[in-house]
Every structure is written in C-alpha cells, then in structure tokens.
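WARN  no MSA supplied for this record, continuing single-sequence
INFO  ligand: adenosine-5'-triphosphate
INFO  echoing inputs
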Amino acid sequence: MEPAVETRALGKRYGRTWALRDCALEVPAGRIAALVGPNGAGKTTLLHLAVGLLKPDEGEVRVFGREPRSVLPDIGFVAQDTPLYRDFTAAELITMGGKLNRRRWDAALARERLAMLGIPPDKPVGKLSGGQRAQVALALALAKRPRLLLLDEPIASLDPLARREFMQTLMGAVAESETTVVLSSHLLADLERSCDSLIVLQQSRVQLAGAVDELLESHRTLTGPRAGSEAIAGVAKVVRASHTERQSTLLVRRGDGPIDPLWTEHEVTLEDVVLAYLADADTRVGAAAWGVPA
Ligand SMILES: Nc1ncnc2c1ncn2[C@@H]1O[C@H](COP(=O)(O)OP(=O)(O)OP(=O)(O)O)[C@@H](O)[C@H]1O
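INFO  complex generated
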C-alpha cells in the first residue's frame, strides 16, 4: 500500500539556516506516528511541508503518492496551540466547517464526540478550558474524515488526565476510520502507549525513525563491568555509554546473535531510546532539552 507520507532528501531553509535537511522517511498508512525532538528541531516545519503550507527548498514530500496541495481534502491539520476562532461556539465552528468542506463533512461525528465529552455547544470556545479546546479542534479535524491527520503538539497544554482522554479519543477515532496520524509532541511517556511509529528529529535532521515495537525490540540497556571501546558480541552499535569507576551502562542497538553474557540486559522504554539518540547526536542538547536527567 502507498505510504501516507513519504519524503525524499526533503529540505527547507529560512535564509541561510536549514530548518529541515536530508529528511528521508516513510509513514505507512494506518499508523499513528509520533514526531519528537527538542524545540527548534524542525517538527513544525515538516508538518507544514506535509500539508503544503511550505514549499521544499530541496527534495520532495508526497502524501498518498501525490503533491500535498493536490490532496488537501484528504488532510486534516491542527496547528500548534489549537488556533480556533475564540468568539465562536463549538456548534458554530461545526457549521462553519461544513461550509468550508463541502465535499465531505461529518457534522454528526463532531457533535457526537463533543456531546460524549460533555463540551457545551453554546459557549464561545475562548471560554473553554485548554483541554476542551483541544478536543474541539480534534473533533473538527475528524469531521473532515481525513485520510491523514497532522497534529502539531496537540497535547502540550493539557493536564495528564486530559492528555490521556485526548489520546484515547484519537486512538478510538483512528481505529474506526483507518486514518493515518502524525503527531508532534515532547511528551514521550504519553506517546509510548498510543503511537506505533516514531520519528526523532534533532537540529533539522532525522536521527531515528521506525516502528515503535521494532525499536523497543532492537535496543537494550546493558550493565556490566567498566567497558573500554572493544566490540561486544551481539551489539551492533553503542548508542550511548555512561560509566562509573567500576561499572558501565550502555544503551545499545542489538546485532546478530546473543549478547555477551558478561553483560546484564534490560528492556528499554521509548524514552530511553529517544534520549540516547538525542544525546548521541549532540550532547549539548540531548537530555537537557527534554528537562530530564541525563
Ligand atoms: N518563519 C521562520 N523564520 C525563520 N526561521 C524559522 C521560521 N520558522 C522556523 N524557523 C527555524 O527553523 C527551525 C525549526 O523550527 P520548527 O518550528 O520547525 O521547530 P519545532 O521542532 O517545531 O520546534 P518547537 O518544538 O519549538 O515547536 C528553528 O531553528 C526555527 O528557529
């Protein structure tokens, strides 16, 4: 099946600064893909290229095999900070959406979703909570019945409960409609539960991309006696190493065959993997940019 999003050597620059460079990736149809990376990594730029708001300076981006602007009716997009017309009520925004999307607009779906969440139809959205506004923006995007839904940090301003509700709504909606989702976020722990693909951007480049279960399966944390730079059986790459006087802790990508039994193996979380690759790419930003200990 045609990938939902495919980029080849994609690049975008502002003046002399590249916001995105050499970006080659594929999001298979039907996936929920997380786009993660520190501030300024290029996440918004990639999403804007995929929805045709920006034009590439290098390479190309294809959505279902075509130029993004030619498939706009199939793309739902929620920009950062869920910018809605704040004086309008949710009900009015649903009506307005119907006028703007004449080809396909499922007003009933949006109304049912908002009713289920207890969001008042007659209150200006500017007076709703951040979580409620995010749900309104998601309901409007889903009413378009998009084949591809692009969400730029939709859960950043939400409390943990609202985040969970939002992600559950999203997963439920996607399962029903086979929509592909690309969602940018800094909140790794929330993504591990709900996303099945991962794209890590840093300093305008893709550091890591793939299916979450494969990434978790192919990486391990190893602890053992202090290591030098010698190769370890069963390890393809040491992504990140930290040492005490006697012990080493390594995050590794597994190679062929079993890992040297001298090392104790531990399973990794998505957060472990992402932070290791960010630190590997640039120790100056890495963990500090995520506000977690290295
Ligand atoms: N309109 C613009 N003019 C000039 N530079 C820009 C513009 N938009 C983005 N940039 C630069 O491009 C780079 C990538 O920005 P982008 O907004 O894509 O990052 P991001 O990963 O979405 O960041 P954040 O997590 O802070 O939203 C940054 O260095 C940013 O300063």
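Confidence is low (pLDDT under 50) at residues 284-290.
INFO  checksum written, moving to next record
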